[in-house]
Design a protein that fits this description.
- The protein is 41% helix and 19% strand.
- It is of the alpha/beta class and 260 residues long.
- The protein has 2 domains: 95 residues, Rossmann fold; 145 residues, 3-Layer(aba) Sandwich (Rossmann fold).
- Strands 5-4-6-7-8-9-10 form a 7-stranded mixed β-sheet, sandwiched between helices.
- The chain starts with 10 loop residues before the first helix and ends with a strand.
């Protein structure tokens, strides 16, 4: 088994070339960025992706039921997840009227999340503020500006840039007393307020079954893209207390993990 990890920049394209040159029987691609880099290098070697949210919009497959090419895999999030993210935020911070959706516009799924979040925010009487960021300077300037008006909160969909700078994001959210919902569990472990998302152990276990089927002769074109089936909620009570947010009993009961 050969493993490559690209933490940032253009390394993904270089490493994708290396992997394809090895001519493996199947490749596991983690995230949309990695999947895109690999797809550009091969249309023959089977690729199973995981933690990808909009494979049709990204051009990875033509149809979820019949992918039609050399790629298939598992969705990280379906569009309805945004309703849950915003509903949880509104539940823990009832005075919320504005939400900044912060992500890197260079991400393959940036527009997908912004588009769906606008409709979801409107149904909850929330103003969605698209907040594109590409580096730590953008993050600090954007949150300093957003926090000048009251009753705001943060929504961070899956995004490599904000994940890389998560300590800064968490520190700024605390400084400006902004309740935040994160799409990665690691944010809450590091001091962020709340996470609701897919159970990663379940996702990778199901991915392994697809890899096994392909090694036994199945074609990715015939394996439907699967949606998530298990979710988890993680709540940081210490952060909630720091922000002065009383946690509703129902939300506390619903949490799979509570950090005290």
């Amino acid at each position: 088994m050969d493993i490559r990890f690209a933490p940032a920049g253009d390394q993904g394209s270089v490493l994708a070339k290396e992997l394809v040159a090895l001519r493996p029987e199947v490749i596991l691609a983690h995230t949309a960025q990695a999947t895109g880099a690999l797809q550009r290098e091969t249309r023959v070697i089977p690729i199973v992706f995981v933690n990808v949210s909009d494979p049709i919009g990204a051009g990875f497959v033509t149809n979820l039921a019949r992918p039609g090419g050399n790629l298939t895999g598992l969705l990280q999030y379906e569009e309805g997840i945004i309703d849950k993210w915003l509903s949880f935020l509104k539940e823990i911070a009832p005075s919320l009227v504005r939400v900044a959706l912060m992500a890197d516009p260079r991400s393959p799924v940036h527009d997908y999340f912004v588009r769906n979040a606008k409709a979801a925010a409107a149904s909850l009487a929330l103003e969605l503020v698209s907040t594109p960021v590409e580096n730590d300077g953008d993050i600090e300037r954007s949150l300093d500006t957003f926090a000048r008006q009251p009753d705001g909160g943060l929504l961070l969909p899956p995004d490599a840039t904000t994940l890389t700078h998560r300590d800064l994001v968490i520190a700024l959210a605390a400084r400006h007393r902004l309740p935040a919902m994160y799409a990665f569990r690691v944010f809450v472990i590091a001091g962020g307020l709340m996470y609701y998302g897919t159970d990663q152990l379940d996702m990778f276990g199901r991915t392994a079954s697809y890899i096994d089927r392909i090694l036994r002769g199945a074609r990715p074109a015939d394996l439907p893209v699967q949606g998530p089936t298990k979710y988890e909620t993680v709540l940081n009570l210490r952060t909630a207390k720091t922000l002065g947010l009383p946690v509703p009993p129902g939300l506390l009961v619903a949490a799979d993990e509570v950090i005290e």
